[in-house]
Amino acid sequence: MKKARMTLLLVFAASVTLAATGWYEGFTLFRAAPAPSPAHPTAPAGRGDPFIVDDASAQRASGIETAPLVESAISVGQAAYVTVVDSKAFIDLHKSYATAQANRDAAKVQAQTSEAQYERQRGLYKESNNASLKSMQDAQAAMAND
Questions:
Q1: Helix, strand, or coil (residue 50)
Q2: Mean pLDDT over residues 89-107, rounded?
Q3: Mean pLDDT confidence for 25-54
């Protein structure tokens, strides 16, 4: 009982921590962005991310090399075709096969148990009638059914 109570307490504490973190991250996510400094002006990129615009001398001092964009041609590779197969039928077949195997194994065990019971009853009946004829016949019928 103590273990379950401790686990429940830990789950609750983790949930509260995650909720507080989510609230704080959401709060900081929607805060206004700081104004750009005049030394490094920013402009929005395609996704809304800012990028820094620097003059050529600052770029050289930082080891940044730039080159103009050039047009390039992309060669088309090989085309590939796929066939999507619904795997539900295969999964159902596998499940029914596994069920059939389990049923077969259970039937084997049942048959072995019935046969052993019949042999015990027959042995007891043959030795001085320690088992009744009816119980031996019942065991024989059970063995025949299994």
A1: strand
A2: 93
A3: 57
